[in-house]
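Lecture notes, continued. The same structure-token format from the folding unit now serves as the input rather than the output. Read the line below as a description of shape only.
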């Protein structure tokens, strides 16, 4: 048995079973693998999992928007929508919000 077909079969299984995504740790970095099968070819995207925790000021919030977000994050219930274009910082914003909420709650 050749090694390459065995590797491809394993990747094909992972792509089907896990919705095409899985994480693996290498040298202390978490790497996200996104696998796509397209016309018999594999497309593999690798992303380093990095979570930036930024203060609300560093996220670019100021004035009325800053006060509104602080009020919403301090509340017991509610809904905050985070919208933006591709690669605009939505995930970074959400992780920062989650960190602020978890740090201020009992």
């Amino acid at each position: 048995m050749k090694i390459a077909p065995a590797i491809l079969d394993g990747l094909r299984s992972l792509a089907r079973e896990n919705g095409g995504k899985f994480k693996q740790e290498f040298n202390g970095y978490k790497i996200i693998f996104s696998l796509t099968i397209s016309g018999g070819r594999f497309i593999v995207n690798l992303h380093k999992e990095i979570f930036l925790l930024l203060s609300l000021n560093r996220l670019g919030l100021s004035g009325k928007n800053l006060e509104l977000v602080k009020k919403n994050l301090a509340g017991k219930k509610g809904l905050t929508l985070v919208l933006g274009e591709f690669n605009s910082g939505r995930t970074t914003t959400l992780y920062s919000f989650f960190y602020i909420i978890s740090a201020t709650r009992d």
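Point for the exam: DSSP finds three helices and three strands in the chain.
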